[in-house]
Amino acid sequence: MELKGIHHVSAITASAKNNYHFYTNILGMRLVKKTVNQDDPSMYHLFYADEIGRPGTDLTFFEITNAGHTYPGNNSISYTSLRVASDKALHYWEERLDEYDIVHDGIGEKFGRKILPFQDHEGQRLVLVSDENNKGVAAGKVWDKSSVPKEYGITGLGPVRFTVPDLAPTKRILTEVLGFRHTGAYPNPEGQAEIQVFETGEGGTGAEVHIEVRPELQKERPGRGSVHHVAFRVADYQELEKWHNRITKERLPNSGLVDRYYFQSLYFREPNGILIELATDGPGFDTDEKVEHLGESIALPLFLEDKRNEIEANLLPLETKID
């Protein structure tokens, strides 16, 4: 068994409307699914991705309207990367972020790649990362109706960073349980211990976890602009069952197998408290909608369909249809 890379990252927003505007109109991602949190159907769950929502390209958001401010700290997923095709694309993005008065740190370099760290309107910590020299997991494809030129558009998810007080227990789960490989390290700009890099599958931009060790920090207090969990790619349901057996034998409390309709999942927390999901590549977002109309209407899994009227009545209208 081998995890294929990052599947998706799920974060928190306080406003689906403002979130939709930022990630589609400004970042140019496609809303491929407008649905609800299956565990709490009173809130939206929005999925932004490449042209068809390929695994490894999904950045998703739960709308929690009363979510407070995030106080960054330990035991967290402290940034999410978004892939672009080239170094040249980062120069385009630097100008675009300035145009929209978006907070950013300018173009820099990390682990041999050009990067552009920035924050969204709620303080979500994001990094644009260049695939100029990527030789690992292939990127997705930019939607032809994106608000950003195709050669500069976001093509998927790059490395996620964990911030933890102690490296050893998280490293053990990644390497001994999940099969990641330690591939190097790079300086921490905060002057702390070097950030450690782990990869899985074909490796490269779409298959890395970076771990920052900060024992002096307090535990993060999540809110709007924080990350809820990261998911890693599993080939199919049969392999997910094997992962469930392995996680259970490790005596890691877990969710058991969960049908998320667009993929099957397994959730567990590693010892530093970070929520990890393993998710299958299929069946995909075109299960209940045609590809050309993804994200235009509220999609519900079959087990919630009989509650559609009640669910829609409790959601604020969110116009997402593209002419």
Automatic annotation (TrEMBL):
Domain VOC, first and last residues per copy: 5-131, 156-281
SUPFAM superfamilies documented for this protein: Glyoxalase/Bleomycin resistance protein/Dihydroxybiphenyl dioxygenase
UniProt keyword annotations, A-Z: Dioxygenase, Oxidoreductase
Molecular-function GO term, any one: dioxygenase activity
Name the record gives this protein: Ring-cleaving dioxygenase
